[in-house]
Amino acid sequence: MADALQYDDMNENGRYTYADYLSWDTKERYQLINGEVFLMASPSITHQGILMTLSIEFGSWLKGKTCQVFASPLDVRLFPEEDNSDNTVVQPDLVVVCDNKKLLGRAVDGPPDLVIEVVSPSNSHKELYLKFQYYLEAGVREYWVIDPEQKAVQVNLYENRRYLSTLYKDNDSIPVTILPGLEIALRDLWSANAV
């Protein structure tokens, strides 16, 4: 890790906080999940193709509407504290935020309405598991996990403090529950990355 991440920078419980995160002078990108640091690798061409396709789809549909779409890199503080002592800061690939009060600082302060993650080989199972748990705990209303290799998307919808999951594959279309009327055709995601 970069020189900025020294053990003496940790708080007394051995974990990093958002305040620590803000002080790091590094070009690397990191996420904090319960104070644990996860280095973010540079995304692949496939990953970026999917992200660009989704950004265009969501951006076009949301034009003139209240909700806004943002693509990574953008910090999302799932459980923000005024003193920056919170210790979970993630950078999902794409988020939709419908509450503009969450957009007043340099990060999204609170859970987005929709989070989309594109899985890459650098994602560890531990990281994916922890994110699932924290998005659920924070109350993210809709959470997608896109697996380009399997050409599949797991859509998790928040209901009664748990996620109800549906798997979409191949050329299915996914209805965006938080944005009634919007559907994403998976064939567009996969064809955007055909080389």
Keywords:
195 residues; six-stranded mixed β-sheet; 4 helices; 29% strand; globular
SSE string, helices as H and strands as E? HEEHEEEEEEHEEEEEH
Q: Indicate the proportion of strand residues.
A: 25-35%
- Number of helices, where a helix is a run of at least 4 consecutive DSSP H or I residues: 4
Tell how many strands the DSSP assignment holds.
13
Instruction: Enumerate the strands of the largest sheet in spatial order, edge to edge or round the barrel.
Output: 3-6-8-9-10-11
Low-confidence stretches: 1-8
Shape: globular
Rg, alpha carbons: 17 Å
- Report how far apart the termini are: 34 Å
Task: Give the biggest sheet.
Answer: 6 strands, mixed
Structural class: alpha+beta
Mean pLDDT: 89
Q: Can you give the helix content as a percent range?
A: 10-25%
Walk me through the structure.
The longest helix has 18 residues, at 45-62. Helix content is 23%, strand content 29%. The N and C termini lie far apart (34 Å). The strands form four sheets. It has a six-stranded mixed β-sheet with strand order 3-6-8-9-10-11, with helices on both faces. The protein has a three-stranded mixed β-sheet with strand order 5-4-7, with no helix packed on it. By secondary structure, it is α+β, with helices and mostly antiparallel strands.
In brief, what are we looking at here?
The chain is of the alpha+beta class and 195 residues long.
